[in-house]
Prior knowledge:
Blueprint: E1 2-3, E2 8-10, E3 18-20, E4 24-29, H1 32-48, E5 52-57, H2 63-73, H3 77-82, E6 86-90, H4 91-96, H5 103-115, E7 120-125, E8 127-129, E9 132-134, H6 138-143, E10 146-153, H7 159-166, E11 171-176, E12 179-184, H8 186-208, E13 212-220, E14 226-234, H9 236-242, H10 246-249, H11 254-257, H12 268-278, E15 282-288, E16 293-300, E17 306-313, H13 315-373, H14 380-411, E18 416-420, H15 421-435, E19 441-445, E20 450-454, H16 455-472, E21 479-488, E22 491-498, H17 530-540, E23 545-550, E24 554-559
Parallel strand pairs: 4-10, 4-11, 5-6, 5-7, 7-10, 19-21
Antiparallel strand pairs: 1-14, 2-3, 8-9, 11-12, 13-14, 13-17, 15-16, 16-17, 18-20, 21-22, 22-24, 23-24
Amino acid sequence: MHTAHFNKRKSGISLIGDLPWGSHFCQFYQTTKDLIDVLAPYFRAGLDTNEFCVWVTPADLAALDARKALKITVPRFEEYTNKGQFEIVPHTRWRAWGAKSGTAVAAMIDKAVAGGFDGVRLACNAVKTGNGFACHGADAVSRYNALAVYAYPRDEFDALGLMEIVKNHRFALVRNAGKWEVIKSSEAQIVKDELKRSEEKLKSLFSNMSEGFAYHRIVLDRAGRPCDYVFLEVNDAFERLTGLKAKRIIGKKATEALPGIEQDPTDWFGKYGKVALTGKPVQFESYSEALQRWYAVSAFSPHKGYFAVTFGDITDRKHSELTIRKLNQELAQRVKDLTSANSELESFSYSVSHDLRAPLRSIDGFSKMLLDDCPDKLGEDDKDMLLRIRASSRRMGQLIDGLLNLSRLSRSELVRGQVDLSALAQGVAGELAGSRPERDVEFVIAEGLACEGDERLLYAVLQNLLDNAWKFTEKCDKARIEFGVTRGKGRKAYFVKDNGAGFDMAYVNRLFSPFQRLHDAGEYAGTGIGLATIQRIIGRHGGSVWAEGEVGKGATFYFTL
């Protein structure tokens, strides 16, 4: 842990040494000179270390006399007073401000923060009550960046009573035989030892934590607005995450350590100032222009006018988010382009459907008219050419139908639900058997095959596959077509198998491309669109399709969903 020893304050009294914030001790006095002997070096140390000093004068000492006494013993006293660093408060006014409740101490803390001071150094007399003496505000002192000395009249206490008072403080200063002595409270020593152990644990924690930690004092301008902050403590992770060395920034303002920070869009001073002045914690993510890094920051205030932050470097995460955001934007643009392309394709499909069909109908119709009306005027070669023209126009019409169907299936919305594949296959098989009742074909369809998908599109898959099997077993004396399920590529794979013409596996990669045929059109009818359609549908269901075959021994087509 790197620190400017901010929490250790010079007491100004050689017998005492340094004191941590929140400390209060007591002084037993007999004369005004006794008071001045302790308070003069006490206040002088506070004034030299940028503390706001307040002396609540006792009833038997006028404010003017107190001022004269300090003016003699404290160098540059008037200068400190003129700039608002020292204030003498009569005890009556102090009680009116809320000495008993601690409100008066809190008010002095507010003035210290507004004045840009590190904390409050207080001196006041203990208040005599019906049960003895009370040190009003001591609890408040322990909660803030404050030090306090409480003065007690020595003549009011015997030895036992004096020791009872000492228990309420860190220690006591007592004048014996013309010399000041320190009497330590046993209770205070126990608390001190426990506090030391706690501080050591905290220092170890903060020094070894992976997150950066820093403790600061906010700096206000004359209008009371946050305009800067001072680095007081940082841990090792702070140096690693920021690249700033503790020895170069401890005790310095942020504007000195990070030039240009006041112009940062994050408004670090405003954010941290609000935390330091209101006590409300805040969490945020922001980019530091000065350090050119992204940080996730948590800020809180342990004392008014001060704030601590823990933070982590999230620059890599932010870069990843930016990359993802850009990819999403590019994807959105591609989707937009694809939507536009699909719209154009739909228009093109409409054009194909209507504009190309009309000429084909004319070609087919006029060819038929010539064959019907002029049979005697046409030679055999002429008739053969007209028949070929009609066959080609009809084939062209089938190709157009296939393209339009492929386009529609690729763009139509999936309507998922539970699908009975066995029932669909039975229905297609029945239609095929009814179309050619003279054929001897055995259909073997497994029962109970079901899946989740679009029933309309999966029907088209089975219709194409079973129709192909029907077509390519046409020359078999005893045809057999099977639909079932097996394991393939590590998943459940459905298949349609036949014992028909088969194909050469050397050309298997051509099977699912549009218009690619492995058999002559004159031998087996078709457009070359069916398997391409199947591949599109299965792909939209997140599955895959493949085939195995052997010439003259049949083929098997597999698909997963």
